[in-house]
Amino acid sequence: MAQIKRGWMILAAVIVLVLVGVFAISHLLDADTYRNRIEKALSDALGRTVQLGHLDFSLFSGNLVAESPTIADDTAFSNQPFLSAKDVRIGVAVMPLLLHREIHIQGFTIDDPKITLIRAENGTWNYSSIGGEGKAKTSQDTNDLIPNLTVNKIDIVNGTVTVGTLPQQRQPHVYTDLNLHAQDFSFSKSFPFTLGGKLPAGGSLDVSGNAGPLNQHDASLTPLTAQIALKHADLVSAGFVEPSQGIAGIADLDSKIVSNGQTAQADGTLHVTQLKLAANGTPSSQPVDLKFSLLQNLQSLSGTITSANLQIGKAALALTGTYQTRGNVMSTESHVDGRNMPIDQLVAFLPSLGIQLPSGSKLQGGTLTTALNISGPANALVITGPVQVANTQLAGFDLGQKLSSIQSFTGAKTGSNTTIQTLSTNLRYASDGIQTNNLVAVVPGLGSATGSGSISPSNALNYRLLIKLSSSGVGGLATQAMSLLPGAFGSTVSQTTANGIPVTISGTTANPIFTPDMSKLIGGAVTQQKNTQTNSIGKALSGLFHR
Description:
By secondary structure, the protein is an alpha+beta fold. It is built from twelve helices and 28 strands.
C-alpha cells in the first residue's frame, strides 16, 4: 500500500514539474520578440504589408498566437485592410524554437477574419497582386522561417467576405461562416483545398479541388480544378444578378471548373425554382433545369456557350452563343431554339415572363415553336425572332359570348373554349416595350386576323388588326346575314365584311379597348358608332400577349 502511495506521489511530482517547466518556458520565451521577423517574412511572401498584434507562445498547441492581424490591400483599390482578424495561430516546429530559438512556420489558422474582395472595371481583382512581388523580394530569413514558401496547412475559420466593385455601383454582397482549409500550401505547386460557407438569404456554398501554382503576375489567373455546389442560392441576394434586371429565383448549382490560367471550362447543371425573368413577372411554379458547357477566356473576359439545354417540364430549348464582360457589365450574342414545345408544360412558366391570359382562361394543348436572338448588355437585352403557336385552346374564354350581337343575329354558338388553329408573329422584346409585327392568327369557324402592334413598358396597347370573317361557321353566317340587308347598303356591308374589318386595340393590358372602324362597314355613312363585339377575335389574340 505504501508503495502505491509513493508511486502516486512520484507521478504527482512529475506532473507538477512538467507544469512548472511549461509555465517557465512559456514565460521565459518572449515570443513577441519574433514578431518583426514574422511580419517581414509574411510581407515578403505576400507582397503586402502584414501587421501582427502582441505575440504569445502556447507550448501545448505549439502555436504562436498573434492578436489582431491585418494584411494591407492593393492601394489601387483601397487604403483599408484586405484582411483583418481576431487572431492568427501560427503553427511552428516546437523543438527548434525551444532549443535553438529558431522559427520554422508550419501553418496558419486565422480566426474570424473579415476579407474584402473588390473587382475593378477592367476585370482585375484586388487579390490579383498577392504574391506578385513576393518571390523577387524573398530574403534568406524569409526562406528560413517559411522554407520554399510552403506550409503544411492554412485554415480560415468563421470568415466573412464582402464583395464589391470599383467604382462602387451597388451595395456590396456579404458572405458569412466561410471556412477554408488548404493542405500543403505552396506558391510554386498545386495544393488541395476545401471551402464552405453561407450565402445571403439562407443559401450555402461548397467548393473542393486543387489550385496552383500561384500565378506570380495575377493571382486570379492561378490554375484551378474545382467542384462547386450551390444550394438554395437566391440569385439577387447572392449577387449573381442585379435587381434592376428583373430576374429572380432560387438556384441549385453543381458544376466542375477546370482552368489552366488562360481559359476555364465549366460544365454542370442548374436547377432553378421560383424563376422570374421580367420586372413585371411573377415567380414561376414550374422549375427550370439547365445543363450547360461554357469555355471562357480569363484574360479577355469573353466566353462561348458551347451548349446549354434548357428544360421546362417536357419543353426543351437549346441555347448557344457568346458573351463578353466589359467593366461590370456582361453582354451576349446568343440564340435560343425551341421546336414543338408542348404548351401545357409552358403554361405555369408564362407568368415569369410577365405574360397574363384573360381572367379565368387557360391555354390547353397545342405546341409553341420559336427561334430567338438575344443580344446586348444584360441590363438592356433585345430579344427578336419568330413565335408560332399551333392547335391550342384558350379554355374558359367564350368567343361566341364576346360576339353576342352576331350570336343573337345568327343563332350560332361557339362554346366556352376558343380554338386557335395557328398564330404567328415576329417578336421584339426590349426595354422600350414589346412589338409584335406580322401577326397572323386563324380561329376555326370564326375567321382570321392580321396586323401588328406594341405594348409599352407601362403596358399601354397600340394594335391595328384586320379581321376577316370566314365563309363558314359564325363568320360565314354573319356575312350572309349582312348581305340580306336592303339595297346597296347590304351589299356594301357584306363586301366590306368579307374583305376585312379594321380594328384598333388601345387602353392597357389590364383594360384593353377594342374599336372597329365602322366607317368602312357602311361606306362612310356612320363614323362614330362603336361595335366592340365584332372584334372579339382581336380580344382573344391580345390575351396571348397580355402582360
